[in-house]
Amino acid sequence: MGYLMGVTALWAFSFSLIGVYLAGQVDSYFAVLLRVTLAMLVFLPFLRPGLLRGKQRLALMGLGAIQLGVMYTFFYQSFLLLSVPEVLLFTIFTPIYIALLDDLLFGRFTPIYLVTALLAVLGAGVIRYDGVDSGFWMGFLVVQGANLCFAIGQVGYRRLAADLPPTLAWHNVFGWFFIGAMVVALPAYLLFGNSAALPTTSLQWGVLAWLGLVASGVGYFAWNQGATKVNAGTLAIMNNALVPAGLIVNLVIWNRDADIPRLLLGALIIAASLWLNHWWCQRRQVAVS
Fewer CB in 10 Å around end: N or C, the chain? Predict the structure, then answer.
C-alpha cells in the first residue's frame, strides 16, 4: 500500500506538467520516446537476463509495450483534445476495466459494470454540456484507450508475478518492461513524430527528464510492485486516488479559473457510478459468504 500511495503523490504532478509545459508544444511521440528511453536507462545497469526464461522475458516486455508504450501514445494525444482536469476525470474508468479483465480471466460476467460505466459517461457529458464537440468525445475515447492499456498492464503484471518466485529481485528484471515499451515508442516516433517540434527550452527538457527518470522509471517500478502486494479491490481503489490528487494540484497551482461547479457536478456523477460499483461488490461478497 505504501508503494501505491507514494506513486500517487508522485504522479499527481505529472498530469499538469504534461498539460502545461509539453502538450501542443513538444511532439508527443518524441516525449513518449524520451520518457521510455530515460526510464529504460535507469534499469539497464541492473538487468540480469538469466533470471527469467524466454517466455517470461517476452511476457514482461509485452506488458511494458502495452502498459507504457501504447498507453503513453494514447495518453499524450489526449492532452491535445482535453484540459488537464478532464483527462484526470476520465481516468476514473480504469478500476472498471480492471474488474472486467478479472471477470474475463475467471470466466465471469457482471452486467452492473456496464451500468456504472454508462453513468460515468453521463458525468463526462455534464462537464462539457454546453460545449461538447467531436474533439471532446474523441479525447474521451483516447483516454479510455490509455485506461485500458494501463489496466491490462496491471492485471497482467499481477498474474505474471504470481507465477514467479516470491524472492525474485524485480529490479534485476524490470528493464525488460521498458525494453518492451521501447519496441512501441521508437517505431511510433519514426513513423509519426515531428522532428520540428522538439523541446526548445531548458524547462521543457527538465520536465521530460523528471517524467522519464522519476515518474516513469521509479514510478512504474514502485506501482507495479505495489500492485502485487495488495488485492484487486485495493488496487482498483488506488487507481482512483490519483484523480482527486491530480485535480487538487492542477486547480490550486495552474488552473484557478476553471469552472469548478460544473467540474464538481460531473465528478459527483462519476463518483456515484463508482459508489454503485462498490456497493454491488460488497453486496455480492455478503451473498457469497
Answer: C
